[in-house]
Amino acid sequence: MTAEAAAGSPSPARSIALEDFRPDGGEAALYLRPVGLVPRGLPNAGSCGAGPVLPLAGGRFGFALAELIVRSPEPDGTATARVVAPVAALQRWATARGGRAAARLDLLLDRLTRPRPCFAGIALDRPRLMGVLNVTPDSFSDGGAYLAAADAIAQGTALLEAGADLLDIGGESTRPGAAPLAVAEELGRVLPVIRHFAAGPAVISIDSRHAEVQRAALDAGAAVINDVTGLAGDPESLALAVARSTPVAIMHMRGEPATMQDAPRYRDAALDVFDWLEARVGACRAAGLADREIAVDPGIGFGKTAEHNVDILRHGALFHGLGTAVLFGVSRKRFIAALSRGEPPAARLAGSLATGLALFDQGIQLLRVHDIAETAQARAIWEALHPAGAPAPGGDA
């Protein structure tokens, strides 16, 4: 194994012609990433030189091309081969191979193209903005600014007035190196703020990994559970979400906040995160949650190097293959400074906006941000440049 692979950076996959595409072994894993996305609102957007344009998650983009990625099941295997081809050609290839390849490609295409219904009552007909409200003394970006309930309420009000579609309220910092917080302290921070906003029309998300806090927040009026452990950190969390039919955001995190940045390693960051989220979505489905109640978050900055984060961001469209809404939190994250000039969190707005727009270009439905007014303005210009097509049937279910 090379030093680069040992550090957790995937080695380049082979790029080959489709007719020569012969992945080894019947157990190879297949992935499908839409590429060359086109706005469905453009004239004659129903087809292109590559063939029919399929709707991406029922949204404003479509795709006729996709990257098929195959990797071996070996423990140290990264992506073994990649090929970009028209979807119709990939379907013919899979049909000719038959068996698992054909079934897997059919499944991924179904997940990629089916319309996404409302999430927590919010239509996903445009990229939606989740406003960050940290009621903490030690969050990486704004720790201490909104610890007092009155300050948090004022900030939350400002975020909603600026255009936040939902408000994500958290009382425990999960920044790199953060120590766990007592549940009683977390409850004391978030409940007064949740109760205030639950009295109005705002959609409230509780950002917590503790079932006791999640339950109390739902009782106080929260409508969404946003769990950085993907409902895996507390054995009661998934059952709670199912019992309450509560929409959830399940995020990928490697390890615990206190140690997650200690030399994180992956076979292939984007594919490993996809596999983990696919397993968690499967667990949620098996427990009784519907796809419309699930959003997936690849967890930028949570147990990942800057290189891992960039790899995952480049593959943003891949995660539509999970069949759920896709959420990203990139606002003010450390990778922005690592790729730029080491700016502190408050000076990372431009990088946050650039990353968010790149994700909009990949059709993601939810973006978690600190700077709502600026992101809403950027979204308005982006929407004017990317006309939406006709609403997909069933998109408001």
What is the radius of gyration? 21 Å
Mass-distribution shape: globular
**What is the tally of helical segments?**
12
Order of helices and strands: HEEEEEEEEEHHEHEHEHEHEHEHEHHEH
Query: Strand order within the widest sheet?
Result: 10-11-12-13-14-15-16-17
Distance between the termini: 49 Å
Percent of residues in helices comes to 25-40%
Q: Write the CATH architecture name of the largest domain.
A: Alpha-Beta Barrel
Total strands: the figure is 17
Main β-sheet description? 8 strands, parallel, barrel
**Beta-strand share of residues:** 15-25%
Q: Which stretches of 5+ consecutive residues score pLDDT under 50?
A: 1-11, 391-397
CATH class of the largest domain: Alpha Beta
In quaternary terms, these chains amount to single chain
- The third-level CATH topology of the largest domain is TIM Barrel
CATH superfamily of the largest domain: Dihydropteroate synthase-like
Structural class: alpha/beta
Number of domains: 2
Question: Summary?
Answer:
The protein has 397 residues and is of the alpha/beta class. Helix content is 35%, strand content 18%.
Protein architecture, described:
It is a single chain. With 397 residues, the protein is an alpha/beta fold. It folds into two domains: 111 residues, no CATH class; 258 residues, Dihydropteroate synthase-like (TIM Barrel, Alpha-Beta Barrel). The protein is built from twelve helices and 17 strands. The strands form four sheets. An eight-stranded parallel beta barrel has the order 10-11-12-13-14-15-16-17, surrounded by six helices. Strands 1-9-8-2 form a four-stranded mixed sheet. A three-stranded antiparallel sheet has the order 3-7-6, with no helix packed on it. A hairpin with a 5-residue loop joins strand 6 and strand 7. Helix 4 packs across helix 5.
